[in-house]
Amino acid sequence: MWTQKILLPLAVYAAAFVVGQEDRAQYALTDTGSTNGGNTFPGVARPLGMVKLGPDLYTGTDSYSGYQPTGNFTGFTMLHESGKGGAAKYGVVSQMPSNQTKNVLVDVSHVLASYRGQGLEQHFLGGNISVEREEDSARFFYTGFGTYDNGWNRAGPWTVYFCGRFNQPSTYKTFLGADFVTDDLVEFGEEPSYESKTARLGAVFSFTEYSLVSRVGVSLMSTDQACSNIEDEITDDMTLEDARDATRAAWNTEVFSKVSTSETNVTKLKQLYTAMYFMHLLPTNKTGENTLRESDEPYYDDIFTFWDIYRSLTPLLHILQPEYYEELIRSMVDVWRHDGWVSDARSSLHNGAVQGGTNGDIVFADAYVKGVRGKVNWEDAFSAMVKNAEVVPENNNDPRDPTGSTKEGRSALRDWLDLGFITPRFGRSVSRAVEYSVNDFSLATVALGLGRLGQFQTYYKRSHNWRNHWNKDMSALNFTGFLGPRDRDGFIAQDPLSCGGCYWQDFYYQALPWEYSFNAHHDIETMVELIGGAEQFVDRLEMTFTPGVSSGNAQFGHTLFNPGNEPSFQTPYLYSYVNRQDLTVQRSRFVAKSYFRPTPNGLPGNSDAGAMESWLLWNMIGLYPMTGQPIFFIGSPWFSDLTIDLGAGEKLEITAEGVGETTFYVQSLKVNGEQWDKTWVSWDDIFAQGGKLEFVLGKEQTEWATGDRQPSPGSHSVGEAKKLISRYLPEE
């Protein structure tokens, strides 16, 4: 059979194997989550790299990552995103090999199709292809560009430049629309460039050999840079094996070496390193590839989306990749400087789409309270946050929600500022009220750190506005009091077990009122009081995990807890706030073991750019972050030993005596050698300068954690909150 070997640049440099390095890449299963709605990308990539080479297959529905396990193959393309929904994105610079006629079709006009409607489908807006003969050779190479738009973030036009080389002589002919531009196959000579405004455009190369190497470079800057990328990263004499080895070494060195264990259970190792793999595919490091501005700052793109990843992925990226994480924060600030907004999401150099609040604010606050400084200009970062909190963005007229901007900012800000709650004249009114509150608490935190006491007071008070949506008369399953919709005349009747369509114009987005009523994580003490106290709080959490409880939304499965969507991520850990750490372990371990597997169908829902995988990683580590606060709930580790490399010579060591499939309840814990009686640890305890956690695990549920509860910084007077938050802000 004739085969085509494709070599491609995957990063800004090539890595070599480290002598004696453990090959943990053998445990990373790159097809995990590629079926059953996981939408992961099963192709080839480097950590946070721009190029993601993979096959595009269609079955009449959106192929979000380009791949579906069945369907019609349409070519290998250079750019994809992993684990995202909304609508298909990228699928550009396509090569389609044929083993019947020994041809390679290069299709400039190829994009991933979308069947969603709503103006989300991508379009080929025009392009160029030129074919030239290499000097003193019978081999041809091609260059050009394609311009496209849309995808899940409804992006404006974006252009990708390309440069492709083959290692074998060929003939070729170009096509424009349905017609070939050249009547006969050309053997030698130089052809002019061909342009297209909308018609299909490309070239067909024909070969005599059955084995072929194709090297392709892409760039967002120019064809010259695309060609330079090939020569810098994939030389003419590099073999496919060389490229594979270099990619494997990059993953081992840059990612998998960050976490080590003596564990020999292969299933656990596969889950550990597979999850690490998928949480390092997005956001994409496109530093040096931003055509929209001149800047010396890093540039990160393909952020899908902070709504999805702020709860679990960005806090873990900070720990595993502190240099990349600081670059991401700097890139966010620089996007605000040049584009005017830090959006909740961004792709192909364009902002969009905002699903709820301005959750980049939470990412900023999390970085600030955990001491990220370096080259971050925090005055500018805070200015970007203030714009989100004070300026109503221009409506971009998104058919998904025409009530306000989905591109950037907080489109329901008018109600928020005027009324202290959000009426249904804006889509997602209740779920956004919860998010706006957490966003405002994030501003209050950074304002206090910067000495802006007036702004601290303003945003701290606004962070309590979620309480204005608490309807004490909403009831379900013998529980009363939930977050409900309201207008100027009062509350609107609502079933706590239904969110209607759970979509952009509904009261709640992608989760039930029951779930969102647990989501004011900065103000947990108030939440517990409104629910009726610690005992009622535990009972309501238990009902959340009770099998067979019916819901008005069938897609949420057999319990009210939804393992496949982010508003439920924190819920299993909330027991710990009232010192029921045993139930935190019981419920979170059940979710992880029941819904996650190292198999193609091994995710409970859409990966959401690694959000699902990072949630699993925290569970395996035995901690869970309270993003925006330097606090981590204590869970139960899966390994007898685990060491996390924190950089700068620091590490976190975790040991677990008695660990097993049935012996996972915490019996006792030491933190840095001291006996521990709290359900939480702080950033300073174990991450700032490293640390050690020593667990003893067993079969019995024990209430070992009887110490002080986790702080609830949003539940106090302004003066008390100022004292509390000041205690955990890093010293400047």
UniProtKB/TrEMBL annotation:
Residues 1-20 form the signal peptide. GO terms for cellular component: cytosol; nucleus. One of its GO terms (biological process) is carbohydrate metabolic process. Residues 225-698 form the Glycosyl hydrolase family domain. InterPro entries: 6-hairpin_glycosidase_sf (IPR008928), GH-type_carb-bd (IPR014718), GH92_a_mannosidase_put (IPR005887), GH92_N (IPR041371), Glyco_hydro_92 (IPR012939), PNGase (IPR050883). Residues 32-101 form the Glycosyl hydrolase family 92 N-terminal domain. It comes from the Eukaryota. One of its GO terms (molecular function) is peptide-N4-(N-acetyl-beta-glucosaminyl)asparagine amidase activity. Residues 719-732 have a biased composition (Basic and acidic residues). The keyword Iron does not apply. Residues 703-732 are annotated as: Disordered. Transmembrane segments: none annotated. It holds the Pfam family Glyco_hydro_92N. Keywords: Hydrolase, Signal. The keyword Isomerase does not apply. PANTHER family: ALPHA-1,2-MANNOSIDASE FAMILY PROTEIN (AFU_ORTHOLOGUE AFUA_5G10520), PEPTIDE N-GLYCANASE PNGASE -RELATED. This is Glycoside hydrolase family 92 protein. It comes from Emericellopsis atlantica.
